[in-house]
Design brief:
homodimer; 10-stranded mixed sheet; N-(1-d-carboxylethyl)-l-norvaline Dehydrogenase, domain 2; globular; Rossmann fold
């Protein structure tokens, strides 16, 4: 893989795909966007745009495509699809591969890197955990209220040269980046927040994080769910200290009235990533022998609540 | 208390109060209804009515009153109020008492008989668990799809002569009745069903019992909640055999698309009896040292979900 002149494909034109794609394109990388429903609108406007609190990033004449075959083999495929579209990996990614193509999934939850590894070979697969608050407001239009950071890792291996180069590329593009040796652990760390807040924001009636924490009982459930996730992670070999719970709750209090991404999906009647965020973690926890009664109940409620929207 | 010519007051003109009040009045008992919002409508129509699957009970010119003082002291006070109105016990019941007045609460969940005992003396207090499916459709108009039965007991004592006489009176009025020595145990037995089905019907998005059981995951939660209630009851000295779970689930399957009373309250934006059915059982379970993680989570969700309706 030649990272001096790398060709990058972005699969998935939601907030994640567009945000990082625009950043990289603006930094001079050779970025190709695969668009489906948004293709015509972006072609007509002739641009993609990210609105940040204090700046705006406009990519004029972005390289957009309707099919992966049109893009052809790349050095790096960045997956920003919703996990609910993971059944389309083979169709969308196969035309983008050469022998040395790396695949970086920026998706939420558990299951995506394992599936990519089965389909395309574990050695290709990298992951990035995006700690970001951004929304797609229109085709090719992203509003980002907090750019946050990305934590990168390799699938099933300690971090190597390749993932460090990618992190450097993201840094150069203005994305705060870290590299970790334990991608699975990073995923579980993110789940400590996502499982309770994304889940309860839906199950408690479609409410933002501040209203969850305004209820002493729901805050108790948040903490208990976090403890279940940490315990399950521990049984899987990932050590997360219990003090992390207090930190996450305090941090969330400072976020004010924040709507987790799953809540937005739910309210806008889009598919919610129930399996990646709750189903797969629950199954891995059960297999590891962890007791996760609240996670099981939350999964059951969410599966039913989100099935009604479709 | 003279049960040959007893004077009975019915407090609460919902489905429970009207149904049993009409039954007793039709059987020749001296029944006085305390009505508030429904008073004018019933006075104008000049009747109260219960529609059953195969019969109709019409009480012409029922004895209705606007205030408890107008009714005056009775031999038996039957409490059919929602538990959410229990803060009005003193105001509503005090004028109805003489030295020997018995108070029979037909209310759901836990807490009502203990409160009545504190306010009026434990020796007055009796309870009845109503296994009935009935709804108030208009002032003084009740539709009953399953008259079921009532299980009577005394508060904190084995059944005595008094409660047996009352059960006989109900039987004569056409109500299938049983008498038990352990009222608290009867309440926990009813909770085994009410906690999961009333609760999940709301928390899973406003769905009837058949849709709860159509989800393998939610059925698992139903069974786990039932096990928590049975375990808590056991720690409080009430033995409910685990086989009861299978029986309750099978029985519920046969009920088809049934909407638990709490779901109807919720959908019609009336107060839901959150404390009586979930809050107080949860607190008693916690005090007894039982682990009830799912009940705690359900309570937290319901408290929030039902607060939004008001």
């Amino acid at each position: 893989m030649n990272f001096m002149k790398r060709k990058i494909a972005i699969i998935g034109a939601g907030a994640i795909g567009c945000y990082y794609g625009c950043r990289l394109a603006k930094a001079g990388e050779d970025v190709h966007f695969l668009l489906r429903g948004d293709y015509e609108a972006v072609r007509t406007s002739g641009r993609m745009r990210v609105a940040l609190p204090k700046e705006e990033i406009v990519v004029a004449a972005p390289q957009i495509h309707r099919t992966p075959a049109e893009i052809g083999p790349c050095d790096l495929v960045i997956v920003g699809l919703k996990t609910t579209a993971n059944d389309r990996f083979a169709e969308l990614i196969t035309p983008l591969l050469h022998a040395g193509t790396a695949i970086l999934t920026l998706q939420n939850g558990l299951g995506s890197d394992a599936l990519l590894a089965v389909l395309f070979g574990a050695e290709r697969v990298l992951g990035g955990l995006c700690f970001i608050a951004a929304n797609r407001t229109a085709p090719g239009e992203i509003v980002c209220i907090d750019p946050g950071s990305v934590a990168f890792g390799e699938y099933g291996r300690p971090a190597g040269e390749r993932v460090r180069e990618i992190a450097v590329m993201f840094e150069r593009a203005g994305v705060r980046s870290t590299v970790g040796d334990h991608l699975a652990e990073l995923r579980w760390i993110k789940l400590v927040w996502n499982v309770p807040f994304n889940g309860l924001s839906i199950a408690a009636g479609g409410i933002p994080t501040d209203l969850i924490l305004a209820s002493a009982e729901l805050e108790g459930v948040v903490r208990a769910l976090m403890a279940e996730v940490i315990d399950a992670a521990g049984k899987l070999g990932h050590v997360i200290l219990p003090g992390f719970i207090e930190k996450q709750v305090s941090r969330t209090r400072l976020m004010g009235s924040y709507r987790p991404s799953s809540l937005i999906d739910y309210l806008e009647k889009r598919e919610v990533e129930v399996e990646a965020i709750w189903g797969e973690p629950m199954r891995q926890a059960q297999q590891a022998g962890a007791a996760v009664p609240r996670l099981e109940m939350l999964y059951a409620l969410l599966k039913r609540l989100t099935s009604q929207a479709h």
